[in-house]
Write a structure and sequence with these properties.
The chain has 8 helices and 20 strands. With 421 residues, it is an alpha+beta fold.
Length: 421
């Protein structure tokens, strides 16, 4: 990690909620301030010489490619106001936009107070050779005098490219043996259940529906955009104040449709049809199943994959979580992607030579499988993070978290700024 003073470092925070802990035992929520193609994300490791050779080679038709970038400029930062008393030991973990294959992040301007504290940057998972899934800024302010304000704001220029679907998918298959980088994307994580009985049944049903009449795909394609990507619409999904517990409400159990009884010959014929599906088609069957079986509910709370399946309704997070859970149950590496005011998923398939790629899948919104035609600012890829400051927790979001010491009589004010320019 790099340690630098405030005057030389960018401080970024999302408009999601922030958890603040005080010596007197109270907490405050943050206050938002008004206001040509390239090769895909390859997992296979190569030395520098091979990478140079690959750069001069036409991308595989199975690889995702990228269109011209959309440039987003945002003024992002935060402010702490010591209203009536001194504030000490301010420590903030703040999520910042992620540099990744389809996104480049550049700082164009910084506005920081001098001589107040220091800033460190780190990527998560914080493990040697791990592929970054999130980036955090760690801000430390030892002391903020009474009635003073510390404001840190940075202007970012973010270039995000649309992801174009591959032109050839028949050669792609589920990895026979997951590499170390992929194993975590096959395991259960917070709110994403893997190998649950209900999830297994959903996978089986999705594959059967695909080979029977393919009506789920037609119904999925007919679904509207739900206002996703429209800046005039309210935020679709925001990270919670804290990692919410799965509290089940008392309600009558959902009546499940009875399984159609098939003869041995019919079951064998169905299994034979499923066997003929390519792995791309198998993942697509899961995708369309979720889009049709789970109704999009704008503003719904984040929920576990099993609850989204049970309720038949969820926001973009719950729908994506269910798709990821079904993929992992089918041994397909998959992960959540957190973008500005939205969530979608990515799944991983590879070619015969072991070269693999991540492909996006937008569950809520216009049908976009294996592509992401509408670029959105990316903050995180993954759904199971650990940070040293919260060792006992597994985090779905590597999001904002602040601790400080202050008098219970003089609560400091914390404001997070996010202004599109």
């Amino acid at each position: 990690m790099t340690l630098r003073p405030f005057a030389a470092v960018a401080f970024l925070a999302l408009t999601c909620a922030v958890s603040i802990v005080f010596s007197a035992g109270f907490s405050i929520a943050d206050e938002p301030e008004a206001k040509g193609a390239e090769a895909g994300d390859v997992i296979k490791k190569q030395d520098d010489a091979k990478q140079d050779d690959q750069a001069n080679t036409a991308p595989s038709p199975a690889a995702p490619t990228y269109g011209s970038p959309i440039i987003t400029r945002m003024r992002i930062g935060g402010r702490v106001e010591a209203k009536g008393g001194e504030v000490r030991d301010i420590f903030m973990m703040v999520a910042v936009p992620l540099d990744c294959t389809e996104q480049k992040v550049t700082v164009t301007e910084e506005e920081f107070p001098a001589d107040l504290g220091t800033v460190e940057f780190r990527t998560l998972p914080d493990v040697k050779l791990a592929i970054p899934g999130a980036k955090q800024m760690l801000i430390s302010i030892p002391k903020l005098p009474s009635r003073q304000t510390a404001t840190s704001v940075v202007t970012y220029e973010i270039e995000t490219k649309p992801v174009l679907a591959p032109t050839e998918t028949a050669t792609l298959h589920i990895p026979k043996k997951a590499s170390r980088d992929l194993k975590g994307f096959l395991l259960a994580s917070p709110f994403i259940d893997v190998n649950d009985r209900e999830i297994k049944d959903a996978v089986e049903e999705a594959l059967q529906l695909r080979v029977k009449d393919d009506e789920t795909r037609k119904a999925s394609a007919a679904l509207g955009a739900n206002g996703i990507g429209d800046p005039s619409q309210p935020p679709l999904s925001q990270p919670p104040v804290a990692e919410a517990k799965d509290e089940k409400k008392e309600k009558p159990p959902i009546k499940k449709a009875k399984k159609e009884k098939l003869s041995e010959a019919e079951e064998a014929a169905l299994a034979a049809k499923i066997e003929k599906l390519t792995d791309w088609e198998r993942v697509e069957a899961l995708y369309d199943f979720v889009r049709v079986k789970v109704k999009y509910l704008n503003g719904a709370e984040d929920m576990p994959a099993t609850k989204a399946l049970e309720d038949g309704g969820a926001d973009c997070y719950g729908m994506s979580a269910l798709f990821v859970a079904m993929c992992r149950t089918m041994k397909v590496p998959a992960r959540m992607v957190w973008v500005d005011n939205h969530q979608y998923a990515e799944f991983y398939l590879e070619e015969e030579d072991g070269k693999g790629y991540w492909y996006p899948a937008q569950l809520a919104g216009t049908r976009a499988f294996g592509e992401m035609p509408l670029p959105m600012v990316i903050f995180q890829k993954g759904d199971n993070f650990r940070v040293p400051e919260r060792r006992r927790e597994r985090l779905r979001y590597a999001t904002d978290h602040t601790t400080l010491q202050a008098s219970s009589k003089h609560k400091p004010r914390v404001v997070y700024v996010r202004e599109p320019l």
